[in-house]
Specification:
By secondary structure, the chain is α/β, with parallel strands linked by helices. About 40% of the residues lie in helices and about 20% in strands. Helix 6 packs across helix 8.
């Protein structure tokens, strides 16, 4: 494979993936919905293709010209999850159709929060169709359906925390809440577990999946199976010199930005990536989440 078409290459995880692909000798064309996104892709050594996920002609032309497709983009109005699901599924179907019967790879991004809660789940376990991230399952299925149509289709489920410099995901939101409220909180006894992966390790996994993941593979982008929320809250508290506090689920609903975030932070979501690591020879080597909280940029003073 030499030419990869990427969606979401200018987002948070995407630039690390694009840089990894370019450094490994692949040429990259990236979907860009704005001039800023296009400039970011160009700075990484990729060629921008202007368009968005609703621009099916751009998706189709990008896929037709490529030796493989990596779909990382996801967006829309989170108050209308059904529309987001339909939008993503349509995009995946559009990207996959030009690859049919070619043996080319199609790698689609999902998240480990699709998995059942309360136990360590594997790549071979079924996702939870009633879970908090069930809206991602339709995209997974749309991708994997292409495995029967001569496409080397695979799904990468990323950990809810993909950490590293300039993260703007769940952990920074947790830190911002601690700064605002004056306490670093966890739900219940804080023993609920979150998987995590460093952004650079995730980038390597995406590249290896494009290069050699077998058709129909479901992969877990997880370096740590489950970091307890209490350990995360305690690290934040120590670094910010704040007290920790345990919240009931009802208290959490008022403490965080919205009730959904309270549910997410109280979710017990451990998963393993043992099969992924064995299948692809992927071995995460970058700092852990708690190491990043200790030594990274998460807890530097916010700009005034």
């Amino acid at each position: 494979m030499t030419h990869v078409f990427v969606t979401g290459g200018s987002g948070q995880t995407g630039p690390a993936v694009v840089a990894e692909l370019v450094a490994s000798g692949h040429t990259v064309t990236g979907l860009a919905r704005s001039a800023t996104a296009a400039a970011r892709l160009e700075a990484l050594g990729a060629t921008p293709l202007r368009g968005c996920l609703d621009d099916l002609d751009s998706l189709r032309s990008g896929a037709e010209a490529a030796d493989g497709v990596l779909h990382m983009a996801y967006g829309g109005d989170f108050s209308d999850l059904d529309d987001m699901m339909r939008r993503d599924r349509t995009a995946i179907q559009t990207l996959g159709q030009p690859l049919a019967h070619s043996g080319k790879p199609l790698v689609v991004t999902s998240g480990t929060l699709v998995m059942p809660a309360g136990r360590v789940t594997t790549e071979n376990d079924a996702p939870d169709t009633a879970g908090i991230a069930a809206f991602r399952i339709a995209g997974e299925r749309a991708c994997l359906d292409f495995a029967a149509r001569g496409v080397r289709a695979s799904v990468v489920r990323l950990a809810p925390t993909v950490h590293g410099p300039q993260d703007h995901g769940f952990i920074p939101m947790l830190i911002a809440t601690a700064r605002t409220t004056g306490v670093s909180a966890y739900v219940g006894d804080g023993s609920n577990r979150w998987p995590a992966v460093h952004r650079l390790d995730a980038a390597i996994l995406f590249r290896v999946a494009l290069e050699k993941a077998p058709a129909g593979s479901v992969l877990h982008g997880v370096a740590e199976s489950g970091v307890t929320m209490k350990s995360i809250a305690e690290t934040i508290a120590r670094r910010l010199d704040l007290p920790t506090v345990s919240l009931t689920p009802d208290e959490a609903a008022g403490h965080y930005v919205n009730p959904f975030m309270a549910m997410v932070y109280g979710f017990d979501a451990p998963v393993t990536s043992a099969y992924t690591q064995q299948l692809l020879g992927w071995a995460p080597t970058h700092p852990t989440l708690l190491e990043d909280l200790e030594h990274g940029d998460y807890l530097t003073a916010p700009a005034s």
